[in-house]
Amino acid sequence: MTDSPPPRPVRLTPRPALVLTVASLLGLAMFCWPLFAHPRPAAAAHTADAPFVFMATLPVLILVVLAELSRGGIDAKALALLGVLSAVNAGLRPLGAGTGGIELVFFLLVLAGRVFGPGFGFVLGSTSLFTSALLTAGVGPWLPFQMLASSLIGLGGGLLPRKVRGKAEIALLVGYGVFAAYFFGLLMSLWSWPFLAGDSTPLSFVPGAPLGENLHRFAVYTVLTSTLGWDTGRAITNAVAIVVLGPAVLAVLRRAARRAAFDAPVTFDQRQL
Protein backbone atom coordinates (compact mmCIF):
# COMPACT_ATOMS: atom_id res chain seq x y z
CA MET A 1 0.00 0.00 0.00
CA THR A 2 1.40 3.39 -0.99
CA ASP A 3 1.84 6.15 1.53
CA SER A 4 1.29 8.87 -1.04
CA PRO A 5 -0.92 11.76 0.06
CA PRO A 6 -4.62 11.07 -0.56
CA PRO A 7 -6.55 13.22 -3.03
CA ARG A 8 -8.05 16.37 -1.60
CA PRO A 9 -11.80 17.03 -1.90
CA VAL A 10 -11.54 20.80 -2.47
CA ARG A 11 -9.27 21.73 -5.35
CA LEU A 12 -7.72 25.17 -5.00
CA THR A 13 -7.30 26.58 -8.48
CA PRO A 14 -5.68 30.04 -8.71
CA ARG A 15 -8.93 32.03 -8.47
CA PRO A 16 -10.35 30.30 -5.35
CA ALA A 17 -6.88 30.41 -3.79
CA LEU A 18 -6.73 34.17 -4.38
CA VAL A 19 -10.22 34.67 -2.93
CA LEU A 20 -9.30 32.56 0.10
CA THR A 21 -6.12 34.58 0.66
CA VAL A 22 -7.84 37.94 0.35
CA ALA A 23 -10.70 36.83 2.62
CA SER A 24 -8.26 35.60 5.27
CA LEU A 25 -6.34 38.88 5.23
CA LEU A 26 -9.53 40.94 5.39
CA GLY A 27 -10.81 38.76 8.22
CA LEU A 28 -7.63 39.27 10.21
CA ALA A 29 -7.91 43.01 9.63
CA MET A 30 -11.44 42.95 11.04
CA PHE A 31 -10.19 41.21 14.17
CA CYS A 32 -7.40 43.74 14.60
CA TRP A 33 -9.46 46.88 14.19
CA PRO A 34 -8.94 48.15 17.78
CA LEU A 35 -5.18 48.30 17.31
CA PHE A 36 -5.46 50.55 14.27
CA ALA A 37 -8.48 52.67 15.14
CA HIS A 38 -7.40 56.31 15.30
CA PRO A 39 -10.63 58.29 15.02
CA ARG A 40 -10.72 62.05 15.12
CA PRO A 41 -12.29 63.52 18.25
CA ALA A 42 -15.54 64.27 16.45
CA ALA A 43 -15.79 60.65 15.30
CA ALA A 44 -14.70 59.02 18.54
CA ALA A 45 -18.29 58.49 19.60
CA HIS A 46 -18.78 56.18 16.64
CA THR A 47 -15.75 53.99 17.34
CA ALA A 48 -17.94 51.32 18.94
CA ASP A 49 -19.86 51.02 15.67
CA ALA A 50 -16.91 49.31 13.96
CA PRO A 51 -17.34 45.81 15.40
CA PHE A 52 -21.05 45.83 14.56
CA VAL A 53 -20.22 46.66 10.96
CA PHE A 54 -17.78 43.74 10.96
CA MET A 55 -20.44 41.44 12.44
CA ALA A 56 -22.55 42.14 9.38
CA THR A 57 -19.62 41.94 6.97
CA LEU A 58 -18.00 38.71 8.17
CA PRO A 59 -20.87 36.39 7.17
CA VAL A 60 -20.84 37.91 3.69
CA LEU A 61 -17.07 37.40 3.50
CA ILE A 62 -17.41 33.76 4.55
CA LEU A 63 -20.25 33.15 2.07
CA VAL A 64 -18.17 34.60 -0.77
CA VAL A 65 -15.37 32.15 0.01
CA LEU A 66 -17.76 29.20 0.29
CA ALA A 67 -19.43 30.11 -3.00
CA GLU A 68 -16.08 30.46 -4.76
CA LEU A 69 -14.81 27.13 -3.44
CA SER A 70 -18.01 25.43 -4.61
CA ARG A 71 -17.58 26.61 -8.20
CA GLY A 72 -16.32 23.35 -9.63
CA GLY A 73 -13.96 22.75 -6.72
CA ILE A 74 -16.21 20.67 -4.46
CA ASP A 75 -18.42 17.76 -5.50
CA ALA A 76 -21.19 15.71 -3.93
CA LYS A 77 -18.76 13.34 -2.20
CA ALA A 78 -16.90 16.24 -0.65
CA LEU A 79 -20.15 17.81 0.50
CA ALA A 80 -21.22 14.54 2.11
CA LEU A 81 -17.88 14.26 3.90
CA LEU A 82 -18.14 17.89 4.98
CA GLY A 83 -21.60 17.24 6.42
CA VAL A 84 -20.44 14.18 8.36
CA LEU A 85 -17.40 15.90 9.87
CA SER A 86 -19.39 19.03 10.69
CA ALA A 87 -21.95 16.89 12.51
CA VAL A 88 -19.22 15.03 14.40
CA ASN A 89 -17.56 18.28 15.42
CA ALA A 90 -20.90 19.75 16.46
CA GLY A 91 -21.49 16.67 18.60
CA LEU A 92 -18.04 16.87 20.19
CA ARG A 93 -18.29 20.50 21.21
CA PRO A 94 -20.97 20.12 23.93
CA LEU A 95 -18.92 17.35 25.62
CA GLY A 96 -16.53 19.90 27.01
CA ALA A 97 -18.75 22.97 26.59
CA GLY A 98 -15.60 25.09 26.92
CA THR A 99 -15.34 24.38 30.66
CA GLY A 100 -11.80 25.29 31.69
CA GLY A 101 -10.90 25.53 28.02
CA ILE A 102 -11.76 21.87 27.33
CA GLU A 103 -12.99 22.02 23.73
CA LEU A 104 -12.81 18.95 21.52
CA VAL A 105 -13.89 20.65 18.32
CA PHE A 106 -10.45 21.94 17.34
CA PHE A 107 -8.34 18.78 17.27
CA LEU A 108 -10.57 17.17 14.62
CA LEU A 109 -10.54 20.41 12.65
CA VAL A 110 -6.73 20.39 12.64
CA LEU A 111 -6.57 16.73 11.56
CA ALA A 112 -9.21 17.16 8.83
CA GLY A 113 -7.43 20.23 7.47
CA ARG A 114 -4.20 18.24 7.50
CA VAL A 115 -5.67 15.38 5.46
CA PHE A 116 -8.13 17.15 3.17
CA GLY A 117 -6.29 20.39 2.52
CA PRO A 118 -6.61 24.12 3.25
CA GLY A 119 -9.80 24.71 1.26
CA PHE A 120 -11.67 21.92 3.02
CA GLY A 121 -10.24 22.99 6.37
CA PHE A 122 -11.48 26.55 5.87
CA VAL A 123 -15.01 25.41 5.01
CA LEU A 124 -15.11 22.86 7.83
CA GLY A 125 -14.09 25.51 10.36
CA SER A 126 -17.09 27.66 9.45
CA THR A 127 -19.65 24.87 9.18
CA SER A 128 -18.51 23.16 12.40
CA LEU A 129 -18.83 26.29 14.53
CA PHE A 130 -22.11 27.29 12.90
CA THR A 131 -23.66 23.85 13.41
CA SER A 132 -22.44 23.54 16.98
CA ALA A 133 -23.75 27.03 17.77
CA LEU A 134 -27.22 25.95 16.65
CA LEU A 135 -27.04 22.88 18.89
CA THR A 136 -25.71 24.69 21.95
CA ALA A 137 -27.70 27.93 21.63
CA GLY A 138 -24.43 29.71 21.01
CA VAL A 139 -25.70 32.04 18.30
CA GLY A 140 -24.72 35.62 18.97
CA PRO A 141 -22.60 38.51 17.71
CA TRP A 142 -19.49 36.47 18.46
CA LEU A 143 -20.44 33.64 16.09
CA PRO A 144 -19.10 35.14 12.80
CA PHE A 145 -15.78 35.83 14.52
CA GLN A 146 -15.65 32.28 15.90
CA MET A 147 -16.43 30.88 12.46
CA LEU A 148 -13.69 32.87 10.76
CA ALA A 149 -11.12 32.12 13.47
CA SER A 150 -11.91 28.39 13.21
CA SER A 151 -11.73 28.58 9.42
CA LEU A 152 -8.25 30.07 9.67
CA ILE A 153 -7.23 27.20 11.97
CA GLY A 154 -8.50 24.62 9.47
CA LEU A 155 -6.79 26.52 6.66
CA GLY A 156 -3.49 26.48 8.54
CA GLY A 157 -3.77 22.74 9.19
CA GLY A 158 -4.01 22.17 5.46
CA LEU A 159 -0.92 24.27 4.77
CA LEU A 160 1.39 22.21 6.99
CA PRO A 161 4.15 20.28 5.15
CA ARG A 162 2.56 17.20 3.56
CA LYS A 163 5.58 14.91 3.42
CA VAL A 164 6.03 14.64 7.18
CA ARG A 165 4.82 11.27 8.50
CA GLY A 166 4.93 9.09 11.59
CA LYS A 167 5.93 10.46 14.97
CA ALA A 168 7.28 13.62 13.37
CA GLU A 169 3.84 14.32 11.92
CA ILE A 170 2.15 13.87 15.30
CA ALA A 171 4.71 16.20 16.89
CA LEU A 172 4.07 18.75 14.13
CA LEU A 173 0.31 18.53 14.65
CA VAL A 174 0.65 18.81 18.43
CA GLY A 175 2.71 21.97 18.00
CA TYR A 176 0.16 23.39 15.58
CA GLY A 177 -2.72 22.37 17.85
CA VAL A 178 -1.15 24.27 20.75
CA PHE A 179 -0.54 27.29 18.51
CA ALA A 180 -4.12 27.12 17.20
CA ALA A 181 -5.51 27.14 20.75
CA TYR A 182 -3.70 30.35 21.68
CA PHE A 183 -4.33 31.87 18.24
CA PHE A 184 -8.09 31.32 18.55
CA GLY A 185 -8.15 32.80 22.05
CA LEU A 186 -6.08 35.78 20.97
CA LEU A 187 -8.39 36.62 18.07
CA MET A 188 -11.55 36.24 20.12
CA SER A 189 -10.12 38.39 22.90
CA LEU A 190 -9.09 41.03 20.38
CA TRP A 191 -12.54 41.54 18.89
CA SER A 192 -14.31 41.62 22.29
CA TRP A 193 -11.69 43.60 24.19
CA PRO A 194 -13.25 47.09 23.71
CA PHE A 195 -16.56 45.81 25.15
CA LEU A 196 -15.45 43.60 28.02
CA ALA A 197 -12.57 45.65 29.42
CA GLY A 198 -14.77 48.61 30.28
CA ASP A 199 -14.18 52.29 29.61
CA SER A 200 -11.89 53.53 32.36
CA THR A 201 -9.66 50.70 33.51
CA PRO A 202 -5.91 50.24 32.96
CA LEU A 203 -6.79 47.52 30.44
CA SER A 204 -9.43 49.44 28.49
CA PHE A 205 -9.24 50.15 24.79
CA VAL A 206 -8.49 53.84 24.24
CA PRO A 207 -9.68 55.12 20.85
CA GLY A 208 -6.97 57.13 19.16
CA ALA A 209 -4.23 56.09 21.59
CA PRO A 210 -0.81 55.16 20.14
CA LEU A 211 -0.53 51.60 18.85
CA GLY A 212 2.08 50.67 21.45
CA GLU A 213 -0.13 51.78 24.33
CA ASN A 214 -3.22 49.92 23.13
CA LEU A 215 -1.12 46.87 22.30
CA HIS A 216 0.28 46.81 25.84
CA ARG A 217 -3.21 47.17 27.33
CA PHE A 218 -4.51 44.35 25.16
CA ALA A 219 -1.56 42.07 25.92
CA VAL A 220 -2.15 42.37 29.66
CA TYR A 221 -5.89 41.96 29.17
CA THR A 222 -5.67 38.79 27.09
CA VAL A 223 -3.04 37.16 29.33
CA LEU A 224 -5.13 37.73 32.45
CA THR A 225 -8.54 36.88 30.99
CA SER A 226 -7.82 34.24 28.37
CA THR A 227 -4.26 33.03 27.85
CA LEU A 228 -3.54 31.74 31.35
CA GLY A 229 -6.90 30.00 31.65
CA TRP A 230 -9.12 29.12 28.71
CA ASP A 231 -6.41 29.12 26.05
CA THR A 232 -4.03 26.96 28.06
CA GLY A 233 -6.81 24.48 28.78
CA ARG A 234 -7.65 24.41 25.08
CA ALA A 235 -3.99 23.90 24.17
CA ILE A 236 -3.65 20.96 26.59
CA THR A 237 -6.87 19.43 25.27
CA ASN A 238 -5.67 19.71 21.67
CA ALA A 239 -2.25 18.25 22.48
CA VAL A 240 -3.63 15.28 24.45
CA ALA A 241 -6.34 14.54 21.88
CA ILE A 242 -3.87 14.62 18.97
CA VAL A 243 -1.36 12.38 20.77
CA VAL A 244 -3.97 9.85 21.90
CA LEU A 245 -6.40 9.88 18.98
CA GLY A 246 -4.37 11.51 16.20
CA PRO A 247 -2.79 8.42 14.57
CA ALA A 248 -6.09 6.52 14.44
CA VAL A 249 -8.11 9.50 13.22
CA LEU A 250 -5.54 10.35 10.54
CA ALA A 251 -5.63 6.76 9.29
CA VAL A 252 -9.44 6.78 9.12
CA LEU A 253 -9.58 10.13 7.34
CA ARG A 254 -6.91 9.12 4.80
CA ARG A 255 -8.66 5.84 4.15
CA ALA A 256 -11.91 7.71 3.59
CA ALA A 257 -10.17 10.11 1.19
CA ARG A 258 -8.74 7.24 -0.86
CA ARG A 259 -11.99 5.29 -0.95
CA ALA A 260 -13.91 8.40 -2.00
CA ALA A 261 -11.46 8.91 -4.90
CA PHE A 262 -12.11 12.64 -5.13
CA ASP A 263 -9.85 12.99 -8.17
CA ALA A 264 -11.62 10.26 -10.14
CA PRO A 265 -14.18 11.44 -12.69
CA VAL A 266 -17.77 10.33 -12.16
CA THR A 267 -18.93 7.81 -14.78
CA PHE A 268 -22.25 6.07 -15.34
CA ASP A 269 -22.80 2.51 -16.41
CA GLN A 270 -24.62 2.55 -19.74
CA ARG A 271 -25.34 -1.19 -19.81
CA GLN A 272 -28.98 -2.07 -19.91
CA LEU A 273 -30.44 -4.32 -17.27
TrEMBL record:
Keywords: Membrane, Transmembrane, Transmembrane helix. The chain crosses the membrane at residues 17-36, 48-67, 73-92, 104-130, 142-160, 172-193, 235-253. This is ABC transporter permease. It comes from Amycolatopsis rifamycinica. The lineage of its organism: Bacteria, Bacillati, Actinomycetota, Actinomycetes, Pseudonocardiales.
